[in-house]
Amino acid sequence: MPEAASLSSQRIHVTEDDPIEALYARGVTDGLPVVPPTETRVQRMLAATERDPSELIGLIGPNYGRATIEKIAINAVMAGCHPSYFPVVLAGVEAMCEEQFCIHGINVTTFSATPMAIVNGPIRKQIGVNGGHNALGHGFRANATIGRTFRLCIINIGGAKPHEITKATMGHPAQYTFCVGENEEESPWEPFHVERGYRPEQSTITLFAGHSPMQLNDHASRDAEQLALSLGWTMTALWNHKNFPLFSDTMLVVCPEHAKTFAQDGWSKNDLRQFLFEKIRRPLRELRPGVNGGEGVGVSMLRTPQKDREPATDDTLFPKFAKPERIAIIVAGGTAGRFSAAVQGWAGGDAGSKITTKEIAV
Question: HSE on the CB side for 69, CA within 13 Å?
């Protein structure tokens, strides 16, 4: 048996009959009951890694609390993680702490973004991360507790609590947990992590600053162009039907049946991205503020154009997606049912959040 790690966290002697109620009283939950992080449970979690408990992974805003291995282990216990999930959790927190992911902004914005985790590679099967039926839903401990650990780390290390410094106007249920495995076995395309430069045999976790998923139903389209138009025009409702172009990335979760339709016509992921960029466009006359709603296309589009761009007229077409590469695509879901999903991102560009991938050390 490995030697127990030396812990530095404060020990709390609980005098109440129910330690779960004591944890509620301390304000360290996400609203659901948590598993009491006894020293035995934390030690069991730490035994899943050879890293020093005092090692600093990074800082989590807005309070810039220190995310050490030990503090992350405590939150993983509270979330209900099995120790075999801990390497995935560590890689995810590492991604969260990357400056380019902008966790500070995500945690204090009036939007409702939350880290959406995508797990790729062999570890999905090894620890039971679901990417099949009910991929974005309930029923799987690995998905539920890995994603929940990120939320608890945000609360207890980052200090982001609603009604305090977290100012999301609406929020959404996926803020409790948002973790999915890519259904690589049912995908006709290369896995998401391979697209991002990793080898198929490597395991990775990717974080995307996502809002609530929007289900895209199409049981009728039988060729790639029909289906792409159907999905693309449905996605024009993301943010607002007049936000052309989006100022965020988009995560398109393609179900296996839809993926087969694209594959049978020889479409690659890049073909789909390029088609959506070129075809899903509306003229400026439909996007002006006050036309079918007070919201309108970005003010920058209505100003005097720059010298490298022709003046916009009412007939000028604006794309829904700013660039093809701003559409990320994974395959997930069950093998029956033609339901895909789109997840709108938080603010993109240099001032926003960038999709971040980390290898999982196993």
Answer: 19
